[in-house]
DNA sequence: CCTATTATTTCGGTGTACCTAAATAAATTA
DNA sequence: TAATTTATTTAGGTACACCGAAATAATAGG
């Protein structure tokens, strides 16, 4: 419960802890956190102690890690930075959606609050980034679209792609080559679970041609996450993560 | 003479070493370097050893520090980053010239080469930044305008402001309030050296009104540096630093 | 030329964020 | 439930970039 000298590592920890609960509500464990940050478990233990000292997380030994109110505030401000930066890079500097993640990852720790605000103004305060993720506002309010898991959708289901995870550039390029992006209308034409892997076949709406359908091979553990709107009406409704985790009800986060 | 894992500290050291010799040619000493970086002398000694190991500087104990060819290359790339960022922030994000320095200082360590290039393209590969400083090209070539020291100019001399140091926001705001910026036409209406300080009175060209002239009180030690073109013809000719150091001949640096 | 002053380097330490290996707690399963 | 496996934390150590204080070299003054 001390002051708050924040560092770029701290920002990363908090952001990852937040992200883990963005689309499902189980809190993250040390090991998962270590894996996502690419550091050793022991580093996490140590750092979590520090985060707790600064009142950014709640944590009892051997139990999962949860953000406090002020941890959530910090996390949402990092998420806002990241997503605004991605939007800006795509709209103003001609980046493609598969390039932006890494660059934003570095920049989010370096830019000032002024920079963020000027950028947001110039972009017209967007509420979704190029991957379809919601952008928190300056006060840390974020509205998650209501959602269902893609792996619960039946063949024949149509909808718009609402969101595609920005973590796998290779997947993004693959989807791009097949004409799939945010807001693309899709239809689930088939599905085949096997060997712990869920395979979803999707094609531009209307096509029933299984051979020409995009084959999405979805391992567990966050390898891939594609999101699909379950009704074709408005963008930004009824989406849910493909990989791991249980179905959760729609929610809104704010500090 | 080892490989080259660069860090943001190393980048700062090298950039400051370069800057010191940009407008005069005496090499920097440990103490001066420490002062400009805001670190202790002992930190500089240590770091300079490391820079030498990486073949970025030449240095014999107790003598001044000079960049090697590869040190100069790195320095010019940092200067390019910094000046392009300043230009971009002013032109694209509505920063004023007195705000940009700090922001660029942070960003220059974080952005990728791709980012720099896209930014440069969008700006049309400018060769001067908002303060009038020359921007090195992608190959590390920079052309310094030929120059005379402002403190050698006589009263009555007219010219355009070619360059104003970006290190003192307060000065920049002061000048701005008095309508002085890069490319403003000025006339030296008087001068008064006293107590180790040089005072220059300048006014918009034509005005002979000493009272309404801008009074520039120029201490030594890099407190202020204003640059004035000594002839009104083209921008980018005959400029020189105001503070400390001896007159040097025009030169061009490149790695 | 020798001494006093100033510049520079060396030495012993600090905080941050990592790591591996060892110890301990929790969960699984036999 | 006891034993094994897995998760987590603790212990001991590293690299980086910094610091103040002490030692040493260079410079300036008498």
Would you kindly provide a written description of the structure presented here, covering whatever features stand out?
2 copies of one chain form a homodimer. With 255 residues, chain A is α+β, with helices and mostly antiparallel strands. The first copy, chain A, has 3 domains: 8-67, Arc Repressor Mutant, subunit A (Orthogonal Bundle); 80-143, Arc Repressor Mutant, subunit A (Orthogonal Bundle); 150-253, no CATH class. In chain A, 34% of the residues lie in helices and 16% in strands. The first copy, chain A, is built from 7 helices and 9 strands. In chain A, the strands form 3 sheets. In chain A, strands 7-6-5-4-8 form a 5-stranded antiparallel beta sheet, with no helix packed on it. In chain A, strands 1-2 form a two-stranded antiparallel sheet. Residues 194-198 and 218-255 of chain A have low confidence and may be disordered. Chains A and B meet through helix 4, helix 5 and helix 6 of A and helix 4, helix 5 and helix 6 of B. The structure holds a DNA duplex (30 and 30 nucleotides).
Strand order of the largest sheet of chain A: 7-6-5-4-8
Total count of domains of chain A: 3
Q: Based on Cα principal axes, name the global outline of chain A.
A: globular
Beta-strand residue fraction of chain A: 15-25%
Mean pLDDT value of chain A: 76
What is the alpha-carbon Rg of chain A in Å? 19 Å
How much helicity do the residues of chain A have? 25-40%
The main pleated sheet of chain A reads as:
5 strands, antiparallel
**Number of DSSP E strands of chain A:** 9
Structural class by secondary-structure content of chain A: alpha+beta
Question: What is the chains' assembly state?
Answer: homodimer
Identify the most extensive interface between protein chains.
Answer: A-B, 19 and 19 residues
- Which stretches of chain A are low in confidence, meaning pLDDT under 50 for 5 or more residues running? 194-198, 218-255
Span of the ends, CA to CA of chain A: 17 Å
Pfam families (chains A, B): Fe_dep_repr_C, Fe_dep_repress, FeoA
Protein name (chains A, B): Manganese transport regulator
Subunit structure (chains A, B): Homodimer.
Domain HTH dtxR-type (chains A, B): 1-68
